[in-house]
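Objective 1b. Sequence-to-structure analysis of N-acetyltransferase.
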Amino acid sequence: MTITHHPEKQQFTTEVEGHTAHIDYELANNVMNITHTIVPEAIGGRGIAGQLMEAALNTAKEKAWKVIPSCSYAAAYIKRHPEFADLLA
């Protein structure tokens, strides 16, 4: 699966079987506020959201951004993956 970062749209996307899944964020002052994680039902249950979240959080880490997990999925993901806890704003 290929995940693409679209900084101009503040979004990470992937396409699976003709369906697009994405994470939306807002960036201000080097703080990434993750606002939505969307995976269409037709491709749900395959770990796609987790792969998108990992890509988003790794990007934040590489760019030295802090993260606000406004999206409930983002908050739960970080709680389950403490290796990303140091990113929390």
